[in-house]
Amino acid sequence: MARLSVLALSARLPSWAEQACAEYAKRMPKGYELVRIPVKNEGALRSALPRHARIVALDERGRDYTTRQFAELLKSETAFVIGGPDGLSAELKAEAALLLRVSSFTLAHALAQVVLLEQLYRAASLLTGHPYHRE
User: Is residue 15 part of a domain?
Assistant: First the structure.
């Protein structure tokens, strides 16, 4: 089973975002465990990181991926980290195996989480054999 963690520096999400995130987490296909961990500061985020997970930090200057390319990241335990309004520290970004951009647009923190969870669901579904409408 591939364990996927999403650690986000944030206050409580608005109810619409919380509902959307919960819906995508519920839809994850068998073989994937999705864990969302809200944290209040980067120190707490660091201590909550799964020990053996590859760290993928969301960053506006990160790399773009197609859905199929993104799916390849889900084949092993991965922790996706989302910063607060000012992003993540340079130190944490330097420790990440990858900097990932979810959009070239500036997104509200809550919306970025929803977009990430939707793509995690879509990519995991693709890896489990669900038909992909772009092929």
Answer: yes
